[in-house]
Specification:
The protein has four helices and eleven strands, in the order ααββαββββββαβββ. The protein is of the alpha+beta class.
Amino acid sequence: MKKNLRALALACAIPAASFAQSLTPACEAAMASPAPKVKLTTSKGPIVIQLDKDKAPISTANFVKYVSIGHYDGTIFHRVIENFMIQGGGMSAGMVEKQTGSPIRNEGTNGLKNDNYTVAMARTSNPDSATSQFFINVKDNDFLNAGPGNPGYAVFGKVIDGKGAVDAIKKVPTGNAGGHENVPKTPIVIEKAECVAAAAAPAAPGAKK
């Protein structure tokens, strides 16, 4: 199963100048909040992910950067395994790999577990190889958690809205395409990824007269 999470190494990378761009105002505001949120508008419905920047600061900042530069717009969930996970963030339609920035350090030992509806970084067998690809667990996958001799897969968020969309994606028919297994027969597209502003705090009740 772990082999199915491996993000393929890319031949080229996003130009440094592009990846060094400032965050969009929406993403800056999200990162300034205690619990940043990202909305994925998919062809199966919206999914809102709450990020844990305290326990997974590197993975959170990395994910938000890719959101900010529009990297995920038009990508697909290219690997779907019911009773395991759904993976996306690195392929566009036709199974064409997208350019990425530099890999990040694995945060698999941050204490967050690969439980149902959590979001984690996909990587190769090298723990510090994650770039843009991520996966959403569709069951508790304890074997992906860090332990003796196991660096783990870094969880950095959880789905807080749109679990129905996740459930719909995990059930789509899959097959082989472009040398890859478990590819949805009908592309599941991330039409847009965007940072979501924090909800305003409720107004304090007025003083009784």
